[in-house]
């Protein structure tokens, strides 16, 4: 991957703590190659949104340079994740935080990230470059809703400028999986709404919008990537999709305990897998044709990535032997989708897997 003239667009998938750490490993590779300075656009969902928010939180709301990421930001995020069990804190605060007892669980998650991870920035504090779209889905329209430093909204309802919105709340909306965390409520009349061109004012309907986890709609964050490809956006000429979605389970046992809740979650999982499968296939066909991007999938081992690669056999075997095994990669793929504090060895293995995946795809 040559640096000169490279303008990178990133898509960081959802997947809870598994995704957060895997993406950190992908970014570590880019930092080692001095390529973080070449990132022009980021589309993120759920865990991927938390990854970016932690980066900004640990760098005074500035985009990180490659040296800053390696020397200071990544070690700081590692300490933060390993010192606080954000899921446990979230559950406890949901019970004992009496003044905010009526807040939605999504709002409580945002407050938990503010208090224990210091995620206190506003959208308006983000630098203009790279553009960052934090993706959710609007319950009322079924369309992608995004938060960014430029504007927020969806293409059916309209858009508004959200400079004063908390990043933690935007990220929580992006991660608001139904049942487990739930929806984020956005009061429509708190903002001035415009059409897509920012010219014509739109009178907002009264009431609230209800935003859910962007992964329900597009867990890879690929829709805005496709939009840029279709309009031949010159701001980006190389795309990296980091897919840390959960591995497919060959057989799931039906249980009567919490049967309806389990069934609903299972149906959502099936739907999300189908959408992601189609999106990733279209994207892979595009980059294979245009030679201008990579698709990185958690769970893919060095053997699987390199087995058909044209390279010296001794070099291939050396790379495979120095990388995580097939078993270790399968473990990473099946790591639970939650926000629990990982063990140190779990963090390091997920980070290494993300790093090696990017390295192997870039050879």
From TrEMBL:
One of its GO terms (biological process) is lipid catabolic process. A motif (DGA/G) lies at residues 213-215. This is Patatin-like phospholipase. It comes from the Bacteria. Keywords: DNA-binding, Hydrolase, Lipid degradation, Lipid metabolism. The keyword Hydrolase applies. SUPFAM superfamilies: FabD/lysophospholipase-like (SSF52151). One of its GO terms (molecular function) is hydrolase activity. Residues 11-226 form the PNPLA domain. It comes from Fusobacterium necrogenes. Residues 156-248 form the Fork-head domain. The active site is at residues 46, 213. It holds the Pfam family Patatin.
